[in-house]
């Protein structure tokens, strides 16, 4: 698995968090609970928020690199 610099979680977790937040409109606490129940990933709410922000950053970077 590939893990972003300065992160404790791989990109697949980052993508899962992004999908839960933006495809399913889940709140941070819900995402935290889903990761724990479905994937046995224990993560703080603040780390979930960081991952949401990182997802937005990576998504926008790829999006704009394709447009330009």
Span from first to last CA?
A: 29 Å
- What spatial form do the alpha-carbon principal axes imply? globular
Q: What is the N-to-C succession of helices and strands?
A: HHH
Q: Mean of the pLDDT scores? A: 92
Describe the oligomeric state of these chains in a short phrase.
Answer: single chain
Percent strand equals: under 5%
How many helical elements? 3
Rg, nearest Å: 12 Å
Which residues sit in consecutive blocks of at least 5 with pLDDT less than 50? none
Helix percent reads 55-70%
Strand runs, count? 0
| Largest beta-sheet details | none
Structural class: mainly alpha
Describe the model.
The chain is mostly helical and 68 residues long. It contains three helices and no strands. The chain has helices at 11-22, 28-39, 45-67. α1 packs across α3 (45-67). It is globular and about 40 Å long. The termini are far apart.
